[in-house]
Design a protein that fits this description.
333 residues, alpha/beta, Rossmann fold, 2 domains, seven-stranded mixed sheet, three-stranded antiparallel sheet
């Protein structure tokens, strides 16, 4: 198998794998039968009583000995193989119910190894076979170009004083099955109304993403299948725009205001601003804007560098060594 081209590809934005659960006779099978061209793999033994094309899943036994002649594992793998060949006209496969399918798998493992419990098979082989069969069936079903629906029953879990509804499928099996699904839907009957509500979903689906109008019609009847508000079309190709860095205009020396702070010996602050070759000296303590001649002469002899504005330059010491300094005035910004 060759590697794919190194470029983004178009994604499939229509959910194809579903986990539907809820109490008995609350509309689970009815919802599954609404999907286009379904075939039902049924564990209830009532395939002859429903109009939808269906197959009874079971461990087929020898009528004389009562031993399993064809296990449900062999039956499921054979049915999946027929679906993989194509040309059958089915677009949806329904496992009704997945809890019973797993029970039948455990039954086949126990009888083949002559034990009553999967854990009694030596060296953990029973649990290993169980996990292998379940994972293999789920993965091969997901690879089919069809809609795949798993139906499970209803249970409750006590959290404090509140009963929380959960699927009856065990946690480990739920992790395998639901982990390969796009939507987790709970069906519930309240009074005369049948409610369908999304409990979990793989992504935030939008109505505009669904290309199959038949699937869109079904999902419109499920609460929480789509985000509220306007739907956005998914991006099929990622485009990276190179943003040009802004170029700063270079200022001339005459446009740059050069500010020099000079600390006087008495603690006051003098500020010299050079603008268009003119120096203006301001002092906080001298309201008349007069400047010490020594400072003015020093600043003229030592102009600030043109490329380093706001450079602080200290004036030469004019007071005698050891003379007390006046209190420092607060520096202004």
């Amino acid at each position: 198998m060759a590697l794919p081209p190194n470029k983004p590809k178009k994604t499939i934005e229509t959910p194809r794998n579903y986990f539907i659960w809820g109490p008995t006779m609350n509309g689970k099978s009815y919802l599954a039968s609404e999907y286009p061209n379904p075939v039902i793999f049924n564990t209830d033994g009532n395939a002859a009583q429903i109009e939808t094309p269906s197959v009874d899943l079971k461990n087929e036994r020898d009528p004389k000995t009562g031993e399993i002649k064809v296990s449900v594992v062999e039956q499921m793998l054979g049915l999946i193989k027929d679906l993989e060949k194509g040309g059958h006209g089915f677009e949806t496969v329904v496992i009704d119910v997945v809890d019973d399918l797993i029970t039948l798998i455990e039954q086949a493992i126990c009888e083949e190894n002559g034990v009553d419990y999967v854990g009694d098979v030596p060296y953990g082989k029973g649990w290993g076979l169980r996990k292998t069969f379940i994972t293999s069936i789920v993965v091969r079903l997901k690879a089919l170009p069809m809609n795949v629906i798993y139906i499970s029953r209803y249970a409750t879990k006590l959290e404090g004083t509140i009963e929380k509804p959960i699927p009856s499928l065990g946690d480990k099996d739920l992790n395998v099955v639901n982990g390969n699904c796009d939507l987790n839907i709970m069906c519930q009957k309240i009074g005369k109304k049948y409610l369908r509500r999304v409990v979990d979903r793989r992504k935030n689906y939008q109505r505009d993403w669904i290309e199959d109008e038949r699937i869109l019609k079904i999902l419109d009847s499920v609460i929480g299948a789509f985000d509220k508000g306007s739907a956005a079309v998914p991006q099929t190709e990622s485009k990276v725009e190179e943003l040009a860095e802004p170029v700063e205009e270079k200022k001339t020396l005459t446009e740059i205001a050069e500010e020099v702070s000079v600390e006087l010996e008495d603690g006051s602050i003098a500020t010299v601003v050079t603008e268009k070759d003119k120096d203006v000296v301001s002092s906080e303590e001298n309201e008349s804007n007069s400047v010490d001649p020594n400072i003015e002469e020093y600043v003229k002899d030592n102009p600030p560098p043109a490329n380093e504005p706001n450079t602080t330059v200290k004036a030469p010491r004019t007071a005698k060594p050891g003379a007390p300094r006046a209190p420092r005035a607060p520096r202004t910004k």
